[in-house]
Amino acid sequence: MNNCIDTIDRPYGIGPVERAGSTIGRVIDRTVTVSAKGATTMVLTLLDWQRQARERAELAGLPQEILKDVGLTRADVEAELSRKPVWLR
C-alpha cells in the first residue's frame, strides 16, 4: 500500500523509470509514443486505400446515364480503373 506522501509528491504524466532519472526510461517512453503514432498513421493509410478501392469498384458499376449526369464518360472510368492501385505507385 502506498503512503499518502508518495501519492502527493508524484508528478503526473511521468513514469516511474523516468522519475528515477533513467535515460533508458525516457528513450522507452519516446519509442512507445513514436510507435503508436506510426501504427495510427499506418492504419489510417490502409483505411484510405480500402476506401479508394471501394469507390473505384462503385464507379465501375455505375450506368452510363449516371456517369453522364456527373460529367464522366465510360473512357474516364476505364482510365481511372486502369491506374495502378495506390499501394503500387
Summarize the structure.
The chain contains 5 helices and no strands.
Order of helices and strands: HHHHH
Task: Estimate the global geometry from the Cα principal axes.
Answer: rod-shaped
Radius of gyration: 26 Å
Secondary structure: number of strands: 0
Low-confidence stretches: none
Sheet-strand content, in percent, reads under 5%
Biggest β-sheet description? none
Can you give a write-up of this model?
By secondary structure, this protein is mostly helical. 71% of the residues lie in helices and 0% in strands. It is built from 5 helices and no strands. It has helices at 4-9, 16-19, 23-60, 64-69, 74-82. Helix 3 packs antiparallel against helix 5. The model has no long low-confidence stretch (mean pLDDT 76).
List the helices and strands and how they pair.
Elements: H1 4-9, H2 16-19, H3 23-60, H4 64-69, H5 74-82
Helix pairs in contact: 3-5
Please name the defining characteristics of this protein.
89 residues; 71% helix
